[in-house]
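User: Predict structure, ligand 5HY.
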Amino acid sequence: MQLRLINPNTTAGMTATIGEAATRIAAPGTRIIATQPDAGPVSIESHFDEAVAAVGVQEEVLAGEREGTDAYIIACFGDPGLLAARELTRAPVIGIAEAAFHMASLISTRFSVVTTLGRTAIIAEHLLAQYGFAHHCRRVRAAEIPVLDLEEDGDAALVRIIDEGRRARDEDGIGAIVLGCGGMADLTEEITEAVGLPVVEGVTAAVKLAEALVGLGLGTSKHGDLAFPRPKAFTGRFEHFSGLMPRQ
Ligand code: 5HY
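Assistant: Predicted complex:
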């Protein structure tokens, strides 16, 4: 199967980190295509960043449809543009936050999330409520590290994530920790070792869920709200969407 792994920010180093982590965990026969939009924020740390990145995600899915993609992963913990992306394809589209919440709820009754900046914690809290996992999650904690520190100052960032993970272990009454950023995809083993709790990382969780769905022959339903968008004209810089709408 061909799995298109979309890093919604435009930092090539982070796309590579995410791609390597996915390739390490993928089953034989699963081909990982790690991509990022041509245009957009170098990191996603706010609602505005998410809104702009969500358009890039759609363009990556439409590109994937031209290349016979079997499943898509949106590798940003805000799952930007997830439902819109599902409208564009029959293939499964999985957000790393949703994937991590599902996996964590299968191995623990309570988990906490450790994300990057406090200001993005609300985005994870909104997704927990939207996906129906709010009662499983004790806290969304922030290591207070800018996303690109994971690329540029990895060691210091790792120390802060481990410290916050240990606080969650000691204070939240949880059985597992969810890593709240795609850029943490290569840190799972070290954090598990240091904190001593099961650590669920979204990119690798999403790869396994995508393989399971494709293996079951299940894809995005085209009945109801995730049906293909009705073809229409788009204007200005979005004119290119006019001709791109997938055939029904
Ligand atoms: C992510 N931002 O996974 C989110 C993490 C966050 O650029 N990739 C990003 O802090 O919301």
